[in-house]
Design brief:
- GO terms for molecular function: ammonium channel activity.
- The chain is mainly α.
- It contains 17 helices and 2 strands.
- Helix 9 crosses helix 11.
- The longest helix has 47 residues.
């Protein structure tokens, strides 16, 4: 909903279809090979990639069947989320068929680094990297891939002809509704990342929910003040939404490792980074319609590093392996590992996405054609025609739009339209006959009125004497001497 509200009306259906594709194709490939690349238990597993448990389907007798299925479902949501982050940055100019291929293969872009951080084999995990709910593997990977895809595709047509000011939102209400859905969904992600409610886990799950909200409060407060200052007292929808989301991304890596006041500080810094870097990317001509590069990429880097500064040791859990952040007397080690993790994840996300899109572009062009971009992907890719979107302006391009012209406008019933057109035609014909009848009545009335005036004149003047002929002729030939005759053909 957030992405569909941020793009123009003629592309809102397309962005929703891309998110559906992310679930369908991305989910399928996560079952095929994604889970195995992150958490596989095969003999060829190494610190870079896990190998094993492909086409995951543990048998009934496997004692780990329940935990494996639970982990698969939870990690599936992370995997598809990482891909949907990229869809917003590619909005309004990406070929839909090319995006389907990207969505199918992008699972590997997420799953390999997810194994580095969360898999038992991962080299970052073995170094002691801490990321509870995905500031790095989900958001930083998604934000880095979003940046790379926006660079590869180039700006939308005419995006920077009038400067770097944001384009009008297609549906601000949808964007705000999307924020609310994400906001409350974040509580499930962060609280659920304790992987249980037994023992003290439920206490840390509750803490994760509260700390998540506190971080969003801090980020939201800053974005309100920032937007009003920047816009002379007016609130910008995008500034507020992305400021809150940037704060949520920042708090995710250590969501139950912070105190409330620390969460507010972390959220404020995340919001600052998001609001400041969005126009910087625009100055670089990196056209990201939803600001994913800033919200998920830049704030994701800060979220990973913040653990090395503010993290507590969550006794008795082993989340941090007994370590604490720099500001909690834990020294520089955890901060160094977190910085290394941020660097590795960022480089992997950018380079792997560049490579993947380059290969796809050799098969299917990743950029839409000019006429398709002008008319919108809703019409050209999905045959959804919005009432306010016209086709005639593309006549100079001599595009073959015969099929598109016959597409019914969205929200209309073509069968009803034909009946309505027939009724309108009948009404027009009936009205024309009424107008014709009224015109003839007026003509007859005017002729009768003229004849009456002449008769009155004849009676009023004594020298006139009316004599009717068989031909209807009026004559005064019998008038007294010295008079003259007048004839009128009736």
């Amino acid at each position: 909903m957030l992405e569909s509200g941020c793009v123009s009306v003629k592309n809102e259906v397309n962005i929703m279809m891309k998110n559906v594709i992310d679930i369908v194709l991305g989910g399928f490939t996560y079952w095929l090979f994604g889970y195995g690349m992150s958490f596989g238990r095969g003999p060829l597993t190494n610190p870079f990639i896990a190998i094993g448990d492909f086409l995951i389907d543990p048998s009934v007798g496997d004692p780990l069947m329940g935990p494996i299925f639970a982990a698969f479902l939870f990690q599936l949501s992370f995997s598809t989320t990482a891909t949907t982050i990229v869809s917003g940055a590619m909005a309004e100019r990406c070929n839909f068929k090319a995006y389907c291929i990207f969505s199918f293969l992008n699972t590997a872009v997420y799953c390999i680094p997810a194994g580095w951080v969360w898999g038992e084999h991962g080299f970052l995990n073995n170094l002691g990297c801490v990321d509870i709910a995905g500031s790095g593997p989900v958001h930083l990977i998604g934000g880095s891939a979003a940046f790379a895809s926006a660079v590869m595709l180039g700006p939308r047509m005419g995006r920077y002809e009038d400067g770097i000011a944001p384009l009008p939102l297609g549906n601000p209400v949808n964007a705000c509704m999307g924020l609310f859905v994400l906001w409350w969904g974040w509580l499930a992600f962060n609280s659920g990342s304790t992987y249980g409610v037994s023992g003290t886990k439920w206490q840390y799950a509750a803490r994760a929910a509260v700390i998540t909200m506190m971080g969003s409060f801090g980020g939201g407060t800053f974005s309100v003040l920032f937007s009003m200052f920047k816009n002379d007292g007016r609130m910008d929808v995008v500034d507020l939404i992305n400021g809150i989301l940037g704060a949520l991304v920042s708090i995710t890596a250590g969501c139950f490792l912070y105190h409330a006041w620390e969460a507010i500080i972390i959220g404020v810094i995340g919001s600052i980074l998001t609001c400041v870097t969005m126009p910087l990317f625009d100055k670089m001509a990196v056209d990201d319609p939803v600001g994913a590069s800033s919200v998920h990429g830049v704030s994701g880097i800060w979220g990973v590093i913040a653990v090395g500064l503010f993290a507590d040791n969550p006794i008795p859990l082993t989340t941090t392996n007994g370590r604490s952040g720099l500001f909690k007397g834990g020294g520089w080690y955890l901060l160094g590992v977190q910085c290394l993790a941020a660097l590795c994840l960022c480089v992997w996300g950018v380079l792997s996405t560049f490579l993947l899109l380059w290969v796809i572009n050799k098969i299917v062009p990743i950029r839409m054609e000019v006429n398709e971009e002008l008319l919108g992907a809703d019409l050209m890719e999905h045959h959804v025609r919005h009432g306010q979107i016209g086709i005639s302006p593309l006549a100079p391009l001599r595009s073959q739009l015969t099929e598109e012209k016959d597409v019914a406008r969205i929200g209309m019933n073509p069968g009803h339209d034909r009946y309505i057109e027939t009724l309108k035609l009948a009404e027009m014909k009936l009205q024309s006959w009424r107008d014709y009848g009224e015109e003839k009545v007026r003509e007859a009335s005017a002729e009768k009125s003229s004849h009456r005036r002449f008769s009155n004149l004849a009676r009023a003047v004594p020298i006139f004497r009316r004599k009717t002929r068989t031909e209807g002729e009026i004559s005064t030939s019998d008038a007294p001497r010295g008079t003259f005759s007048v004839s009128h053909q009736v």
